[in-house]
Write a structure and sequence with these properties.
The chain is α/β, with parallel strands linked by helices. It is built from 3 helices and 7 strands. Helix 1 crosses helix 2.
Protein backbone atom coordinates (compact mmCIF):
# COMPACT_ATOMS: atom_id res chain seq x y z
CA UNK A 1 0.00 0.00 0.00
CA UNK A 2 1.16 3.52 -0.76
CA UNK A 3 2.60 5.45 2.18
CA UNK A 4 1.56 9.09 2.35
CA UNK A 5 3.85 11.67 3.94
CA UNK A 6 2.84 15.26 4.67
CA UNK A 7 5.50 17.85 5.46
CA UNK A 8 4.49 21.17 6.97
CA UNK A 9 7.16 23.78 6.22
CA UNK A 10 7.66 27.46 7.00
CA UNK A 11 7.66 29.91 4.17
CA UNK A 12 6.08 30.56 0.83
CA UNK A 13 5.98 29.08 -2.65
CA UNK A 14 9.76 29.47 -3.04
CA UNK A 15 10.23 27.48 0.17
CA UNK A 16 8.06 24.75 -1.36
CA UNK A 17 10.28 24.59 -4.45
CA UNK A 18 13.47 24.49 -2.40
CA UNK A 19 12.15 21.75 -0.12
CA UNK A 20 11.01 19.68 -3.13
CA UNK A 21 14.54 19.99 -4.56
CA UNK A 22 16.05 18.86 -1.27
CA UNK A 23 13.77 15.82 -1.20
CA UNK A 24 14.59 14.98 -4.83
CA UNK A 25 18.30 15.34 -4.07
CA UNK A 26 18.11 12.91 -1.15
CA UNK A 27 16.17 10.42 -3.26
CA UNK A 28 18.69 10.75 -6.09
CA UNK A 29 21.54 9.93 -3.70
CA UNK A 30 19.66 6.74 -2.76
CA UNK A 31 18.93 5.95 -6.43
CA UNK A 32 15.18 6.21 -5.83
CA UNK A 33 13.15 7.27 -8.86
CA UNK A 34 11.17 10.47 -8.34
CA UNK A 35 8.27 11.96 -10.23
CA UNK A 36 7.58 15.58 -9.38
CA UNK A 37 4.01 16.17 -10.46
CA UNK A 38 2.88 19.75 -11.06
CA UNK A 39 -0.41 21.25 -12.14
CA UNK A 40 0.94 23.36 -15.01
CA UNK A 41 3.90 23.93 -17.28
CA UNK A 42 5.01 27.15 -15.58
CA UNK A 43 5.43 25.30 -12.27
CA UNK A 44 7.34 22.51 -14.02
CA UNK A 45 9.68 25.13 -15.47
CA UNK A 46 10.21 26.75 -12.05
CA UNK A 47 11.08 23.45 -10.34
CA UNK A 48 13.34 22.63 -13.31
CA UNK A 49 15.22 25.92 -12.83
CA UNK A 50 15.43 25.42 -9.07
CA UNK A 51 16.82 21.87 -9.44
CA UNK A 52 19.66 23.24 -11.58
CA UNK A 53 20.54 26.05 -9.20
CA UNK A 54 19.54 25.25 -5.61
CA UNK A 55 22.86 23.63 -4.64
CA UNK A 56 25.98 25.01 -6.33
CA UNK A 57 28.13 21.97 -5.47
CA UNK A 58 25.83 19.13 -6.50
CA UNK A 59 24.23 17.97 -9.71
CA UNK A 60 20.83 16.31 -9.93
CA UNK A 61 20.15 15.16 -13.47
CA UNK A 62 16.48 15.52 -14.32
CA UNK A 63 14.11 16.24 -17.19
CA UNK A 64 10.68 17.67 -17.84
CA UNK A 65 9.04 14.77 -19.66
CA UNK A 66 5.61 14.12 -21.11
CA UNK A 67 6.18 10.37 -20.63
CA UNK A 68 8.43 10.31 -17.54
CA UNK A 69 11.27 7.79 -17.56
CA UNK A 70 14.31 9.64 -16.13
CA UNK A 71 15.35 8.82 -12.57
CA UNK A 72 14.23 12.34 -11.57
CA UNK A 73 11.37 13.54 -13.77
CA UNK A 74 9.03 16.52 -13.74
CA UNK A 75 5.60 16.24 -15.32
CA UNK A 76 2.59 18.56 -15.58
CA UNK A 77 0.56 16.39 -17.95
CA UNK A 78 -0.67 14.09 -15.18
CA UNK A 79 1.09 11.00 -16.52
CA UNK A 80 3.21 8.75 -14.29
CA UNK A 81 5.26 7.20 -17.08
CA UNK A 82 7.43 4.39 -15.75
CA UNK A 83 7.63 5.80 -12.22
CA UNK A 84 6.40 3.94 -9.16
CA UNK A 85 8.75 4.74 -6.27
CA UNK A 86 8.35 8.35 -5.05
CA UNK A 87 5.76 10.90 -6.11
CA UNK A 88 6.24 14.49 -4.95
CA UNK A 89 2.86 16.09 -5.57
CA UNK A 90 3.29 19.84 -6.04
CA UNK A 91 -0.32 20.37 -7.01
CA UNK A 92 -2.09 22.07 -4.13
CA UNK A 93 -5.52 21.30 -5.52
CA UNK A 94 -5.61 17.63 -6.45
CA UNK A 95 -4.14 14.19 -6.09
CA UNK A 96 -3.23 12.42 -9.34
CA UNK A 97 -5.66 9.53 -9.88
CA UNK A 98 -2.75 7.10 -10.32
CA UNK A 99 -0.98 8.00 -7.04
CA UNK A 100 -1.54 4.50 -5.61
CA UNK A 101 1.00 2.93 -7.99
CA UNK A 102 3.76 4.69 -5.99
CA UNK A 103 5.47 3.35 -2.89
CA UNK A 104 5.44 6.83 -1.33
CA UNK A 105 3.63 10.08 -1.99
CA UNK A 106 4.86 13.34 -0.49
CA UNK A 107 2.58 16.32 0.02
CA UNK A 108 4.08 19.65 1.13
CA UNK A 109 2.10 22.24 3.07
CA UNK A 110 3.41 25.81 3.30
CA UNK A 111 2.22 29.13 4.73
CA UNK A 112 -0.65 30.01 2.43
CA UNK A 113 -4.21 29.62 3.68
CA UNK A 114 -5.60 28.29 0.40
CA UNK A 115 -2.84 25.67 0.21
CA UNK A 116 -3.39 24.66 3.83
CA UNK A 117 -7.12 24.21 3.17
CA UNK A 118 -6.58 22.21 0.00
CA UNK A 119 -3.97 19.96 1.66
CA UNK A 120 -6.41 19.30 4.51
CA UNK A 121 -8.87 18.03 1.91
CA UNK A 122 -6.17 15.84 0.38
CA UNK A 123 -5.32 14.50 3.84
CA UNK A 124 -8.99 13.59 4.32
CA UNK A 125 -9.06 11.94 0.90
CA UNK A 126 -6.14 9.66 1.78
CA UNK A 127 -7.40 8.98 5.30
CA UNK A 128 -10.90 8.04 4.16
CA UNK A 129 -9.38 5.42 1.87
CA UNK A 130 -7.25 3.91 4.62
CA UNK A 131 -3.78 4.91 3.42
CA UNK A 132 -1.07 5.05 6.09
CA UNK A 133 -0.23 8.72 6.69
CA UNK A 134 2.72 10.33 8.43
CA UNK A 135 2.83 14.03 9.24
CA UNK A 136 6.00 15.97 9.97
CA UNK A 137 5.70 19.54 11.19
CA UNK A 138 9.01 21.18 10.32
CA UNK A 139 7.77 24.56 11.58
CA UNK A 140 8.19 23.51 15.21
CA UNK A 141 11.52 24.22 16.86
CA UNK A 142 12.80 21.17 18.72
Amino acid sequence: MTNIIFYRIKGDYNSLLLFACQLAGKAYQKKVSVLISTSKESISNKIDEKLWSFDPVSFIPHDIESDPSSLIAINHEMKPGEHDQLLINLSDRSTPRWFSRFQKVIEIVYDEQEVIGNKRKQYGFYKSRGYPIKYYDLTVNN
